[in-house]
Amino acid sequence: MSNQLPYDYYPLEIFDNIAHYLTTKQKGICQSVCRSWRRFFTPSQYRHIHVRGRRQFSQFYKSLEPEFVGHYVRRLSVEDVYMTAQELHTLPMLCPNLIALSFNGKSIDSTVEEQKVEYSPFAPWSHLRRLTELQDLTVTNYLLRSPSSPLSSLTHLSIRFNDNDPNSKADFFAGLHKATDLINLSLDSVTLSLSEIESIHQACPHLQKLRLMNARLEPIGSTVKEKRAVATFLCQPAKSMRSFEYQNGSDLYDNYEWLYYFANKYMAIENLELWCEYSVDTPHRIPPNVSDLEERYGALARLGMTCRSLKSAAFLNVSMNHWFFEALDQMGTQLESIALGDMTDNTIDLLQYLGESRQNISNLTLWGWPSLCIQETMEEIITTIGQCSERLSSLVFSMRFSGIRNSPVPIDMLLKCCPKLSSLKLDGIQAALLSSTDFARDALVNNPSFVRPKLNRLVLENGSFRNELFEYLSIRCPNLAKLEIGSCALIGECSQMEVRVDMPNHVFEKISISHLRPPTRYHHATVPGDIRLFDVSLLDAKKKNSNHWHQLYELTDYEKYTDSLTFNYEQKPMETNRPTKYTCHANPDDRPAGPFVSIQCQSLQELNIGNFWVI
């Protein structure tokens, strides 16, 4: 008599609920137990697919044909992949139940023949709600031109226009009236006029979010009188709009009349983001005179007067003064988050105005500028950050666009000035320390009531650090549970080729590390290769019935790729390598020679290395 449980009688929803609490690796283990378990846990493995590079896509595509697994795929993200026309046209039949598709690649010889317009290979995607295309508009154009287009089912559409195809914008606007249910629209690399903006809202009456990236807005008027007339332009307010983002635009310097239009059109928005184009390679613009500056300040203040539901505002590389904060206070608007930074020392004054206003924000994004490489200026800005809000819990500090690489930011001073921070992201920054770890340890021993920061999440991007940083965090930040490191380098003695994340008392929810490099002997040397070895030790491994769990992972089979920049700010994308596989060594104590990352903590729920979930 068999004691095996009759799994076949259980609905698949039960196994989906179980898989919801498992990591990616645990799902893979369950799938490999037996044939029955493979059938039950395969849907959870294929529910959300993120493919990077041609090699991964080929493996994924081959797995779809012999089995029925493509029907389980709900969300598919294809990044940096050149598809053939056959692969692209058969994908809807292999994955007919897609809800979201993100395609950041190109289709080879994918020109649609006119005689095949009646036959739409994308018809099976009747469930498609979210579509993102960031290279060619292959899928979008087919949906727009097909008579039986499922475009009306889309709620989220994000596309990047091709400069080599001048007709792409005209074709897009000609078929946009089909997308009547669209609530989120993102347009990249496009030039728009006032009439075209108005046509978007007429075609999509339920639109809630509009994002324009790398875009150009045509001037509405040529003289100051004509520009001011826009303030009284009787346009129909878009009452459904809740978010407007104008990112990396090049026109708010001169065509500030668009600020008046935004104020009249988007009176009900809750999120507003205005980011002017910036690059250290771009020659400085001729500074406007006093009267022109006052015109811009007045236009920004009008936004604060009319948009009374604002919760989040971002003004990056936009000249502004205290008038905007005074307008918010006058209207009784209370912001939750704000982003500031105009690439000058004027940003310090803006933070002081923010602290003097009645705005008590919880989230701050700050863009740094070149003079922050001076230690006194950096310490001044950190002190000002601590005074700008009493409840600041999240801070994003970026020096990426300043032209200064690895400018040191004393993270100990930052946490001292902002003890309530729970989330901190440093971008293009060297995470430095003013005091030694011995000082922090002595202060903790001699003063039991020593105030500890509430830091829970730390993100380091495009920067550098020393190993002393993690020793300090182990002492000062006991609540740190999420650590993310991407495109960073270890600095210090070149003989020290080990990154030591030595935090034995910490209980981590997630550690994510990608593109971490060892120190180099020469300052101007070629960027060294990524660290491939990861030595992981967990001191509390109850699942293994032992007090110690030790594994050694190695990233393998690297391939070259080029990052696609989200924003076009005259920075050349960097060609680098990325792994396509990883291996787990049978004997972790027998480590190969080479630089490695050593991770030691109490417990760890999820570990992501090189974009692979190994735990």
The end-to-end span amounts to 38 Å
Number of E strands = 27
Question: Quick one: biggest sheet?
Answer: 25 strands, mixed
Radius of gyration: 27 Å
Mean pLDDT over the full residue set: 82
The number of distinct helices, counting runs of at least 4 residues, comes to 17
Question: Which regions are unreliable across 5 or more consecutive residues at pLDDT < 50?
Answer: 1-5, 110-119
Binned strand content = 25-35%
Indicate the percent of residues in helices.
25-40%
Structural class, by secondary structure, is alpha/beta
Outline: globular
What does this structure look like?
This is F-box domain-containing protein. It comes from Parasitella parasitica. The chain has 615 residues and is an alpha/beta fold. The chain has a domain of 135 residues. The protein is 27% helix and 28% strand. It has 17 helices and 27 strands. It has a 25-stranded mixed beta sheet that branches. The chain has a two-stranded parallel sheet with strand order 7-9. α13 links the parallel β13 and β14. α1 packs across α3, α6 packs across α7 and α13 packs parallel to α14. It is globular, with a radius of gyration of 27 Å. The relative contact order is 0.06. The N terminus is likely disordered.
